[in-house]
Specification:
This protein is mostly helical. The chain has 20 helices and twelve strands.
RNA sequence: GGCCCUAUCGUCUAGUGGACUAGGACGCCGCCCUCUCACGGCGGUAACCGGGGUUCGAAUCCCCGUAGGGCUACCA
């Protein structure tokens, strides 16, 4: 039997990293077994579902490369299926109409808790007489449908990751399967869909483990065959609490906007709760797919660690195909107004070269843009620390002046020729090359760190280098006391 | 409160009774490389939640605590 799995988010927010990992594990499992990965949207909660969330989730999945083979199916478009199933259970007396209102239920729940009792539904509508029923209906009450749960016996969840987990039926409520607005509840719709869609493996977050016996009861009531269950551990925020917005970036879209690469997120997420055979942490997707197995998924909840993700992102940024990285960096450069949008084709090679020079020393696409600014704009200020260190020396104006003159004579302005010029000059002056290099970097970039100086010079080109050198000399003369040997 | 899951360095994890002096990765620290910053290389720091068992032997099996998490909704 071929594998069929599904990812079934509710469209009540953007895809967060926990959901992304659940989707990833389903996707990996499908790909590993040449199965089918289905996307289903569990939008039975009319109040909380939104079109924007739906679009955002699809966008995130696509961006991550978690392509689905079927769907997206919307539960809200499959209501007839749930209605028929509920009808069948009603006819077979496996479910019943309940006329209690939410207010009444809340009140009884509150009372039970006050007495220290388990806040379970008291099943009062389970054995209503026809008279009682028509009286309640006459009151205009809109009923829900509840499953008639056996009060004895146990329901065992057989879970690939956790083994056999037994639940005492007596602890399970006669839970609602159809709401009074005739929408099915999650525990009902999910069962029918999993059955109808021929889902063979239900891979989902651990928060659903406790719901599973209820679903199994529905499977059994409907006479459906059970799928295999696998409950993957939750992903927790750094303070061990459940993930939420107050923990900073938790949605896939936020990571995308912060300049993370999909392959880094995929690699990182794959290692959160699962581990490959070797000791290598940078694992190509093909390897992850070929090695992925539910049995190797760990049981304990994981706390996500942005530091490791960032490290991985830096790796993929450095190693990735340059054209692709450049394309991905482009929006970040444009957002800062550094390059035109759209970028004229003739400017592409320069942007590409800048990205190449800069990407070795940053970890995100946003940082690529930050580190590249002076390749696209004038240098208007010099880093304070660098000024003190390199511009404040009395001989610096003379040094920059000499360097400028030598560079001016250059025909070919390349990494090699500029470096030779600097090395030779340093040798002639009998000073370490650094004394020339550091002030020059500050002069042409405004910064004390960055790519190798000669790489910068070649990229900037002779004209801009000379101009920036002159500007720096003027700036020093104006701002640094006693900078010019002859002025006092 | 009831039910369920989980428990190895700060974090992600390897580990399925002897190969454990507990391995790897991120982070952090140091050194090397070097025009700076990174990269890279080398080295270091750091963990089996506690208590009882079982066993010749326990990180590994069992029990009890404790801690964290989940479910207990006309949310999913």
């Amino acid at each position: 039997m071929s594998v069929r799995v599904r990812f079934a988010p509710s469209p009540t927010g953007s895809l967060h990293i926990g959901g992304a990992r659940t989707a990833l594990f389903n996707w990996l499992f499908a790909r590993r077994h040449q199965g089918t990965f289905i996307l289903r949207i569990d939008d039975t909660d009319l109040d909380r579902s939104s079109e924007e969330s739906y679009r955002s989730i699809l966008r995130s999945l696509e961006w991550l490369g978690l392509n689905w083979d079927e769907g997206p199916y919307l539960e809200s478009e499959r209501l007839e299926l749930y209605r028929r199933a509920a009808e069948k259970l009603l006819v077979e007396d496996k479910a019943y109409l309940c006329y209690c209102t939410p207010e009444e239920l809340a009140e009884r729940r509150r009372e039970a808790q006050a007495k220290g009792l388990a806040p379970m539904y008291d099943r009062r509508c389970r054995y209503l007489t026809p008279d009682e029923r028509s009286r309640l209906e006459a009151e205009g009450r809109r009923p829900t449908i509840r499953l008639a749960v056996p009060d004895t016996g146990t329901t065992v969840v057989s879970d690939v990751i956790r083994g056999e987990v037994a639940f005492d039926n007596a602890t399970i409520d006669d839970f609602i399967i159809v709401k009074s607005n005739s929408m099915p509840t999650y525990n009902f719709a999910t069962v029918i869909d999993d059955h109808e869609m021929g889902i063979t493996h239900v891979i989902r977050a651990e928060e659903h483990l406790s719901n599973t016996p209820k679903q199994i009861l529905v499977f059994q009531a409907l006479g459906y065959e059970l799928p295999v269950f696998a409950h993957v551990p939750m992903i927790l925020a750094p303070d061990r609490s459940k993930l939420s917005k107050r923990h900073g970036a938790t949605s896939v879209e936020e990571y995308r906007e912060a300049g993370y690469l999909p392959e880094a997120i995929i690699n990182y997420l794959a290692l959160l709760g699962w581990s490959p055979e070797g000791e290598e942490e940078i694992v190509p997707l093909e390897t992850i797919i070929s090695q992925f197995s539910l049995e190797k998924v760990s049981k304990n909840a994981a706390i996500y660690d942005t530091k490791k993700l960032t490290w991985m992102n830096g790796h993929y940024l450095r190693e990735g195909d340059l054209d692709r990285i450049t394309r991905m960096a482009l929006p970040f450069l444009q957002a800062r107004g550094l390059v035109a949008d759209p970028l004229p084709d003739k400017n592409y090679p320069y942007v590409r070269a800048v990205v190449e020079a800069v990407r070795d020393r940053v970890k995100t696409l946003a940082e690529v843009a930050d580190a590249a600014s002076y390749f696209f704009t004038e240098v208007t200020e010099y880093e304070e620390k660098g000024v003190r260190k390199f511009f404040a020396r009395p001989e610096v104006v003379d040094l920059l002046q000499q360097a400028k003159e030598r560079l001016q004579e250059l025909e070919a302005f390349t990494m090699e020729t500029t470096e030779k010029t600097y090395r030779d000059l340093a040798a002639e002056l009998d000073i370490p090359a650094g004394q020339l290099i550091h002030p020059t970097r500050l002069a042409v970039s405004g910064r004390t760190m960055g790519p190798g100086l000669f790489e910068i010079l070649e990229l900037l080109g002779k004209e801009r280098v000379i101009t920036r050198l002159e500007q720096a000399i003027a700036w020093i003369r104006e701002n640094i006391k006693g900078a010019d040997g002859e002025s006092n």
